[in-house]
Amino acid sequence: MKKLAVLTSGGDCQGMNAAIRAVVRTALSADLNIVGFQKGYYGLIHDLAEPLTTRSVSGILQRGGTFLQSARCPEMHSPGGLEAAVVTLQRHQVEGLVVIGGDGSLRGALALHARGIPVIGIPASIDNDIPFTDMSLGVDTALNNIIHAVDCLKDTASSHDRAFLVETMGRKCGYLAVVAAIACGAEHALIPEIPYDIEAICANLKRRFEEGRDNSIIMVAEGVGQAQSIAEQIKDKVGFETRIMVLGHYQRGGSPSTFDRVLAARFGASTVEALRRGESGKMVGLSCGKVTFTELEKVLTSGLRPIDQVLLQLAQILGI
Ligand code: F6P
């Protein structure tokens, strides 16, 4: 094996730069050449290649985002796009590809594997919705961003006896909302996996304020619906002031946490080692502290990572 390639695809997240750095440095230390494709699969299809050296990845470890840039690329799901991607990789004589991204990006990786390109995926998405890994890249840092924002919010909420609805990312997965609820002491976490009972929430909020509590926080995963409309329902039913905070893309930015940097280093290095062993069509993951590999086919046909019932119960118990 002489040459590898790496790209970041889909929504960016913290730790992508650290993972690219680990992939590049592990490859170079094994005397392999390595090329990066800019803007994810778009760059593969349109040949936006850049040779990577140890210097190209200096000073990026602590930066959020991805210096290779990323894109969502519907073209990759068409036969023409896939063919163009294969041709680019062949033109560059790439013998192994590392794809860093979420489930859509892993689907592209599986399609390339099926076309005979050796490829390994690194799960990277703040949603933590990818199965067969306890954590994806970016999740820990996103949670740290959320708790910083909610801690600030509680100060002002308490000064005014207000209830705040805080909208986190997570189109189909409530992981961020549930874990943030535990870490921030929120009263409720509304998540797409489980229908919520507005009457019960209102009764609880009313009871809390009657008991003299000066704030209430309700985490709302974006997949549940607009925090604004839930806030209005609560205001109409309970009568006290509600406010919302939509955290949006703020959650995806900033310097990666220690956890994400180390996870990125482990994932990046193990992925290169796996390609060198001749493995392909797999996703690296973390299970009980150990690095694991799972067939992409299995990852992508098992549905999204289910919500952890123990965490959910804990959020409910502690939110009284
Ligand atoms: O999948 C990651 C994610 O951050 C989701 O939580 C969110 O719904 C989506 O990406 C936002 O995508 P975009 O950055 O394309 O608006």
CATH class of the largest domain: Alpha Beta
Strand order of the largest sheet: 3-2-1-4-5-10-11
Task: Give me the Rg, rounded.
Answer: 21 Å
> How is the CATH topology of the largest domain named?
Rossmann fold
Secondary-structure blueprint:
Blueprint: E1 3-8, H1 16-29, E2 33-37, H2 40-45, E3 49-51, H3 79-91, E4 96-101, H4 103-114, E5 119-123, H5 139-159, E6 162-168, H6 175-184, E7 188-190, H7 198-210, E8 215-221, H8 227-238, E9 242-246, H9 258-276, E10 282-287, E11 290-295, H10 296-301, H11 309-318
Helix pairs in contact: 1-9, 5-6, 6-11, 7-8
The structure holds 6-O-phosphono-beta-D-fructofuranose.
Care to describe what's here?
With 320 residues, the chain is α/β, with parallel strands linked by helices. The protein folds into two domains: 181 residues, 3-Layer(aba) Sandwich (Rossmann fold); 112 residues, Rossmann fold, CATH 3.40.50.460. Helix content is 42%, strand content 18%. The chain contains eleven helices and eleven strands. The strands form two sheets. The protein has a seven-stranded mixed beta sheet with strand order 3-2-1-4-5-10-11, with helices on both faces. Helix 6 packs parallel to helix 11 and helix 7 packs across helix 8. The longest helix has 21 residues. The chain starts with a strand and ends with a helix. The mean pLDDT is 96. The structure holds 6-O-phosphono-beta-D-fructofuranose. The site of 6-O-phosphono-beta-D-fructofuranose has 11 residues, from loops.
